Amino acid sequence: MKQTPDAANQANIIIVDDTAANLEVLAGMLKDSGHRARPLPSGKLALQAAENSPPDLILLDIMMPEMDGFEVCRQLKANPKLREIPVIFISALSETMDKVKAFGAGAVDYVTKPFQFEEVRVRVETHLKLRRMQVALEAQNRHLEDLVREQVREISDSQMITIFALAKLAESRDSDTGKHLERIQIYCRLLATKLKEDPHYSESITQTYVDNLFHASPLHDIGKVAIPDSILLKPGRLSPEEFEIMKTHSTLGARTLEAVRAKYPRNAFINMGIAIARSHHEKWDGSGYPNGLAGEDIPLAARIVAVADYYDAVRFKRCYKAAATHEEACEILLAGSGAHFSPRIVEAFRELAREFREVREKIAD
Fold first, then answer.
1. For residues 64-102, b (16+ Cβ closer than 10 Å) or e, as one string?
2. Share of the chain above pLDDT 90, in %
3. Closest Cα to residue 77, out of 67, 87, 65, 68?
4. Residue 223 sits in the same domain as residue 280
5. How far apart (Å, rounded) are the C-alpha atoms in residues 356 and 190?
6. Global pTM?
7. How far is the CA of 212 from the CAs of 184, 198, 305, in angstroms?
8. β-pairing, 109-112 with 87-91?
9. Which domain holds residue 358?
């Protein structure tokens, strides 16, 4: 009995058989069930048609010239675009091994010729229903993944904003620094992105590393919150004794973040923040502080921040010194390559010098 087509449940079904009579019979049956039938006489044409317009289900003969049904099914399942389409074999082959081979190629069902219309119809409807349920479940899973991803992003953004606010609070005690932290973030991202092109860093600098560096770099001077105002806000140069106290901001900042790491020991962001806070005043030649580290013993993130921080700091006007021009800052940094700074990072800075100047001008104090 012919059924009235339901647009919501109408399926697009490819029928593959080299016998015209079989195609006609099956196509008529499917159309009477309210589906769209696409009869094709060869496996090659079926693969092309499926690629151009993927069907909801395929009815596939086995014994065909040029390409048999087993090979057609294998090629369908090898194609990421088509592999989820259910395939029902309809064949005169009735041996158990033929059926096993069909299921091994990726079929979901097997009907033996001569077939009964009602049996084919019921199996088709069953697998169409399963396929619709699978598609709906996949869509629901994607929706849930999107919701989770958005929630994680919101939480992450809130955490980053809070951390940046704390870093700004520490920085605010020094009224001369302006938008130093904002510029440091951009400088570090520029340098890390450029260093990704260097084979020496191809494995260590990933996009996640760049993102963590961008967010962790403002923590470099967070330890200054514990430095007495009489030293931090002193209008002139520090005495040797005062400078020794000022230098402790690196270890104080690292210890503060280490308390956080005690609860989140595998957090890459916190670990990077600790390395930056402690080691951004270390020097390539080992003459820096607090640990006198040298060369690549200095954490990479700290070496990057050291260049970014120095460029921005030297361009500040202090009561005891004039602000350096962009050209003067570049000259100082290039001269410090191999002594104060990592040569590779200085080379990256040299290639990015124009971008640094543009950032300094765009994000002015």
1. beebbbbebbebbbeeeebeebbbbbbbebeeeebbebb
2. 63
3. 87
4. yes
5. 8
6. 0.59
7. 13, 19, 12
8. parallel
9. 172-362
Hunting for tokens 């001269």 — which residue is that? 335
133 with 21, same domain: the answer is yes
Total residues belonging to the chain: 365
Written as six digits, the tokens of 176 are 């001369």
Distance CA 306, CA 279 (A): 9
Among candidate residues 122, 142, 162, the one where a domain is terminated: 142
Tokens for 271, please give them: 């670990």
The pair of structure tokens assigned to 131 is 């396929």
The answer to whether the Cα torsion of 17, 18, 21, 24 is positive or negative is: positive
- Which residue's entry shows tokens 């009964």? 116
Helices and strands: H and E segment counts in the chain: 14, 5
The pLDDT of residue 1 is above 50? no
Q: Which of 53, 126, 123 is nearest to 90 (CA)?
A: 123
Q: How far apart are CA 210 and CA 190, in angstroms?
A: 9
Q: Give just the sign of the alpha carbon dihedral 159, 161, 165, 167.
A: positive
pLDDT number for residue 160? 61
